[in-house]
Amino acid sequence: MSRSFDDLVVEAATAPVDGWDFSWLGGRATEQRPSWGYQRQLGRRLARASAALDVQTGGGEVLAGVPRFPPVLVATESWPPNVAAAARSLRPRGAVVVETTDEPPLPFAGAAFDLVTSRHPATVWWEEIARVLRPGGTYFAQHVGPGTMWELVEYFLGPQPEARRKRDPEREAADARAAGLEVVDVRSERLRVEFFDIGAVIWFLRKVIWTVPGFTVDAHLGRLRELHELIRRDGVFTAHSARTLIEARR
Q1: Each residue of 67-117: pLDDT tens digit?
Q2: Which Pfam families match (predicted)?
Q3: Within 13 Å and on the Cβ side, how many CA atoms surround 159?
């Protein structure tokens, strides 16, 4: 027997959303992964680096899965629960975790790192990345691309034609060049995302808070109930994420 709307809502509205672990969605939602294997490529680059900086590391989950750290590894994060989670997983391996804001400047000297990385940064400050990179150093990152989860965004917020164009990879590459970086590689993919119950949608929107800014169950209860019925009827709500792989050299 399928679970009731109220049961699913209560469960998802009270489940913890700390860190950047999405295992709570196991069996309830799926997302295709980009073909390039960011974490695997990140591991290769970290193994060759002497001093690396990971910006907006979340709970450190991606770095924690890398087998070998460079002699110097610093990770920044702004959200206190994530700072604590990153410290627990990264400090025992010798990394330094620094709590920062997501605004410039980065709290590091110029030319301090030969590798700067980031997975899904909320903001990208190209001038600061260029400043802290050594000559010949590399920025390697996976960014959220344009129109990510747009089916979900517009379901709750209605048409957002201007916002849909944000995070365009060609514009990001142009901004990187304007900051004095040489863009070595830019790749983009659009990936299928499936939600199998309304609890998965609620939990995702509570965790990835910029998808539907200001989302609360109470404020969107009517649309949530309609979406619950849609998922019960069709078995799934389908959206798409966009991902950009970008590599740039100073």
Answers
A1: 999 999 999 999 898 999 999 999 999 999 999 998 999 999 999 999 999
A2: Methyltransf_11
A3: 1
> Would you list the domain boundaries of the chain?
5-249
Distance between start and end Cα atoms, the chain = 58
Handedness of CA 90, 207, 192, 140 (dihedral sign): negative
Give residues with Cβ within 8 angstroms of 135, minimum separation 6.
Answer: 111, 250
Task: State the architecture of 5-249 in CATH terms.
Answer: 3-Layer(aba) Sandwich (3.40)
Q: What is the pLDDT of residues 214-229, one digit of tens each?
A: 999 999 999 999 999 9
User: 20 CB contacts (<8 Å, ≥6 apart)?
Assistant: 58, 59, 61, 62, 82, 85
**Would the pTM count as exceeding 0.85?**
yes
